[in-house]
Design brief:
mainly alpha; single chain; 13 helices; about 300 residues
Length: about 300
Amino acid sequence: MTVPEAAPPTSPRALAWRRRGAAFARGWREFARQRSGVIGLVLLAVIVLLALLAPVITDKDGLDVTRATGGPLDPPSGDFPLGTDRPGRSVLLLTLWSARISLSVGFTATLLSIAIGTTIGILAAHFGRWVSGVLMRVTDFFLVLPSLVLAIALSTVLARGIGTIILAIGLTSWPAAARLVRAQTLTIEARPYIERARALGGGHFHVISKHVLPALLPLVFVNTTLAVGSAIVAESTLSFLGLGDPDPMRPSWGSMLRSAWLDSAIIANAWWYLLPPGIAIGIVVLAFTMVGRALESVLNPRLREG
C-alpha cells in the first residue's frame, strides 16, 4: 500500500497573494452591489475608451483651423453631429480630443498631489515632534490660501503649457490629503503590531514601507479617485481663464469653453458649441464622485453598515 505524498508547503508569499486575491474578490462583490458606483465606473470606462481611441476613429488634422471643412457655427447635421465652432471645426472632434488632455491633466495632477500629501502626512505622523510641527505649519499655510488663487499665480509666473497646469494643480491641492493621511497614520502606528515590529528591530523605513503604507493604500486610493474630478475642474477653470496650453492642436474642455465665450456662442445661440464640453466635465466629475463614494463605502465598514 502506497502512502500518498504530502502536499508541498505553501510559501508565505503565496499565502499573502492568495489572501489579497480573496480580499479583492470580496471587495469587488461589495462594489458591484453599489449601483451608483457601477454606473460611474461604466461611464468612466466609456469616456476613457473614447479618449484613447480618438486617434483611431478621428483625424487629428481636423483640429487645424486651416483645414476646417465646415462653416462658422454651423448647427448639428449629418456631417457634423455636434455642429462646428467659429473656424468651422467639428465640435464632436474637439470634444473627443479635449478628453485626452483633460483626463491626462486630471490624473497626472492628482497623482502628484496625492504623492506629496501622502509623503508629508506619513512623515509628520511617524516622526512627530518638531518634524510634525514644521510640516503641519506648512500644510496649514497652504490650507489657508485658496488653492485656485495659488494655481493661477503659478500658471501666470511659469510658461503656459500642460506641464505648468499639472504643476500648478498638484503643488496646491495636496494639504487635505496630507492631513487625512497623517490622522490615519497616527491610528495605524498605535496598533500592537507596529510596536511589535519596532521591538524586533524594525527601522523607520521598514515600519513605513512594510506596515504603514500598505494599511494606508485603500484610503489613498479612495482619496485619489475623489480628487481626480476636482483636478479636472481646476484644469478647466485655469484653461477658461486663458492660462492653459496655447496650442490649438491640444484643446481641453476648459479651452473649448473659453473659445465658445470669446466667439460669443451664447449671443449667436450656438448652444452646440457651449454645451458639449460643459456636459462632459459634469459627467466625468459625477462619475468619479460616484466611484469614489462607492469605494469609500466598500473600504469603510462603518459606512457599509450604514
